[in-house]
Design a protein that fits this description.
Blueprint: H1 25-38, E1 46-52, E2 58-64, E3 67-68, E4 73-78, H2 82-89, E5 92-99, E6 104-114, H3 117-126, H4 129-137, H5 147-160, E7 172-186, E8 194-201, E9 204-210
Antiparallel strand pairs: 1-2, 1-5, 3-4, 4-7, 5-6, 6-7, 7-8, 8-9
Length: 212
């Protein structure tokens, strides 16, 4: 018997009904995110970002949500990383939040664009100094010969920024995903989960229940 086939959990933590949903998926998401924070879920702002470039091969990685407003979801990264290059080639992407303690996930699709430079500057200056220097050190997603290569770069930048202001590198900053589809998933018994999809129609959100 394949042991992986025997791994399963029965979901019974909560339920979701259309009468309990907010008209805006952003407002609904804020409620769920606050629930995850209050429940002590580890890394509640961690989200899987999926992108694809001109070759249409999808690529996924975990990033952290750093801002949320009525327009969308903001994260920060290296513009020259794999995800940065893919976003430049194809601005359509998706986010996935999973909070297993609450038996919930949220799937988000939309268009990604860079934030304004002053937003990236403000967030960069709020970071710990070690993180700021790390943004200068790492040629993110590129192949490097060994750890020593990075350690030497780190030492070089430490020396450099003893005499220079530590400003945001031009190849690092923010992105915002503006959603046009948001799905809320609540685990239920017998795999008959509650799923609701918000679809943007013009400036209005339409809500549909989906089969599990």
């Amino acid at each position: 018997m394949n042991e992986l086939q025997e791994i399963r959990n029965e979901y019974s933590h909560s339920q979701l009904d259309i009468d309990n949903l907010q008209n805006s998926p952003i407002v609904q998401f804020k409620y769920w995110l606050n629930d995850a924070i209050r429940a002590g879920v580890p890394e509640p702002t961690a989200m899987i970002l999926s992108t694809s470039g001109e070759n249409r091969k999808p690529s996924s990685r975990v990033v952290l949500l750093k801002d949320l407003d009525h327009d969308g979801f903001t994260f920060f990264t290296n513009y020259e990383s794999r995800k940065g290059i893919q976003i430049a080639e194809n601005p359509q992407g998706s986010l996935l939040f999973f909070w297993p303690q609450l038996e919930r996930q949220v799937r988000i699709e939309g268009r990604i664009s860079r934030t304004l430079p002053h937003i990236s500057d403000e967030y960069f200056q709020s970071r710990p100094e070690g993180n700021k220097i790390g943004a200068w050190v790492s040629p993110q997603s590129r192949r490097v010969p060994n750890r020593e290569y990075l350690d030497n770069l780190h030492k070089d930048y430490l020396r450099l920024f003893k005499t220079r202001t530590l400003e945001r590198p031009e190849n690092w900053g923010g992105y915002k995903l503006l959603p046009d589809l948001v799905e809320f998933w609540q685990g239920r018994e017998n795999r008959l989960h509650d799923r609701f999809e918000y679809t943007l129609n013009g400036s209005m959100w339409e809500i549909y229940r989906l089969a599990p």
